[in-house]
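Class prep. Write one:
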Amino acid sequence: MVRRSQSSNPRSVVVLTSGTDWGTRAAVQRRSSGAESPIPKRQPAKIKALQQTIGVAGSAIKRKRWHEARYALSRARALTNALPTNVAVQEREKLSALRKKYAARNTPAARSVKQAQATPAGRAGGKKPTPKKSTAKNAVQKPKPAPIRDLGDRFIDRAALGYAPAGKTNGP
């Protein structure tokens, strides 16, 4: 039997379970991020932990372990927030580069690189595949600029703003 209530209130209901509901209780729990992990107290230890976390995040991104990379990046963010801004500048630059790599994991460019790696370089047959039409131009389209609103003929009353004497005004 497992005691479920952690409350110190003696009137709270205590449910004793045999552990059959553990799967459903675990599904309710929120996924943890690296920010909840303990942060060292002293600054050199924080910097060392940040360097280690950046290394873990880099290797996770290289191996395409996205969950591990997300955890390491959130832990690194918590560590950088705990440090002053002028400390560990190189580590912050490395971290921003890793964040860009992590953010680009599902972009069309990353998919095209993945497809290029999937096809073998040398084929056994003499045939060459026919080149396909480029769809990269269709995928990356420039957004249309917003139309410029016509404000009409508007005049600024400089006298009201205190720039000119009251007798001389710019206007019709």
